[in-house]
Amino acid sequence: MQQPQHEVRAVHTASTVTVYQAYSPEIGLPAVREGRFPAAWKRDRMTWIKPSFLWMMYRCGWAAKEGQETVLAVEIGREGFEWALRRACLSSYQPGVHTDRAAWQRGLKRSPARVQWDPERDLRLRPLPYRSLQLGPAGEAARRYADEWTVAIRDVTPLAHEVHALVRDGDLGAARRLLPREQPYPAAGELLSNLRS
Fold it and tell me: How many Å from the N-terminal Cα to the C-terminal Cα in the chain?
């Protein structure tokens, strides 16, 4: 079955959705220890959260890039995730989605979150023909993400290293079995109606 071009796939429960971020150990390890983002986490700037584990691996180079050595699985409340999606704006102007560039710019200024669609990745981090969501909370949304929506924070760096080692060894079957079970997110059609590029 062919994957939809724009679909939110994530690990989710009835009340939470898991997103991924990578940080330096100075930010990531206190976040895991305390179960919340430390004071050093900048709440006044945009942060990008990714429901796709493999897209996160592509972004952080399997937790090897400088400043991205600690990969976090951040479980957030679905209400907050959906609040951000309902108020989000695409990060770039798209003819056919926006009436004109000025309307897009006005929406972008008012929006507390941005959405970007990037090619999903396979186990070798090669691009796939369908897209993966990135959600960028900023301002009010970033503060809510850090201080209200976060339910739990886990360190999945060991998982990143284990999957990467299996991929390097050519054991893609074993690597695939370790991946988080990401499923289509319910109600995403209504949530994404203005967010498809």
Answer: 22
